[in-house]
Write a structure and sequence with these properties.
alpha+beta, FdhE-like fold, nine-stranded mixed sheet, 10 helices, 9 strands, binds zinc ion
């Protein structure tokens, strides 16, 4: 494993970049299309686990269909924004609010119905049980949104999160700029929906060299300078790791101060990469870092902790 430090000082603006957008909102259909492409690449590359990537390809295709056929109603967009503005309500209130948003529940039912035939009977049954019980479905969603992942079966969590994500992404994108509910400069969690990031992206093109974190829920990307740890803001012990060579497009940034790490995808080296699919395709790097005692910042919505 090589360690190539390529951090830049926070005051060094990247040449050619005039203004830094604090947040980039997703073009959701394009995001899904790229994710599907990259999942298909993983199906071919994985010796084992290709089946799971095939399942995920179908899951994202279903999200794409939901987006095209049943875009989120305005009432649901408003309800999601008012939920986000509540901050941290008590559990019963939070569940009532979630229950009052039919769009994500319908999205879940569509996903569960489409995906069940691809799954072993037990897993299919688990998805069906939640379609049949609105109360249980809402409870599962509430646990996930509060990062209480251990309360939900990891297989079910992927599908519930996919339903929430398709709706939250539409709601946040619909009201671009209005939805930022916390300051961006030190945000470890998404400034629009509070969810954890999937990974860190070093951008190419017009934003060459800038670092954005990508939200695991609403798909927004928010800017963070590259010379500091995204968890603790320290800059003294940042290191970059890759499995093969220092120019590898998939890297890990570790912080020796707080012992955390985040996956970094260098879109400036490989613009084809997609955060969710390519993070999942490189979990070997995560295992190596966890063996070294570093804790991951953020989640991958296709791989909830068991
Ligand atoms: Zn978000
Ligand atoms: Zn740190």
């Amino acid at each position: 494993m090589l360690n190539g430090s390529d951090i830049v000082a926070p005051d060094k603006r990247t040449p050619g970049v005039v203004a830094i957008d604090p947040a980039i909102y997703p073009m959701l259909d394009k995001r899904y299309a790229r994710r599907i492409e990259r999942l298909k690449v993983q199906v071919l590359q994985q010796d084992e686990g290709g089946e799971y990537f095939r399942f995920l390809t179908h899951l994202v295709q279903t999200q794409q269909e939901i987006l095209a056929r049943t875009p989120l109603e305005l009432a649901d967009i408003e309800a999601i924004h008012s939920l986000l503005k509540q901050g941290d309500p008590e559990a019963a209130q939070f569940e009532r609010s979630l229950g009052g948003i039919p769009g994500w529940q319908a999205a879940y039912t569509t996903l569960a119905t489409q995906l069940a035939p691809m799954l072993p009977q037990k897993a299919a049954q688990a998805l069906g049980n939640l379609s049949a019980s609105k109360a249980q479905l809402i409870k599962a969603a509430a646990h996930l949104l509060r990062a209480d992942y251990a309360q939900v079966d990891p297989g079910v969590a992927v599908v519930v999160w996919a339903a929430l994500s398709t709706c939250w992404a539409q709601a946040v994108t619909f009201k671009q700029g209005e939805g930022i509910v916390q300051s961006l400069a030190h945000a470890t969690h998404c400034p629009c929906c509070h969810a954890p990031p999937v990974a860190s992206l070093v951008m190419g093109g017009a934003r060459e060299g800038l670092r954005y974190l990508q939200c695991s829920l609403c798909e927004v990307r928010w800017h963070r300078v590259r010379a500091v740890c995204v968890a603790c803001d320290a800059s003294g012990q940042l290191d970059h790791w890759t499995l093969d060579d220092a120019k590898s497009a998939i890297q890990i940034e570790t912080c020796g101060d707080c012992r955390s790490y985040i996956k970094t995808l260098r879109l400036d080296y490989d613009p084809e990469l997609e955060a969710v699919a390519d993070d999942l395709g490189s979990l070997l790097l995560d295992s190596a870092m966890e063996t070294e005692g570093f804790m991951r910042i953020g989640i991958n919505p296709f791989s909830f902790p068991a």
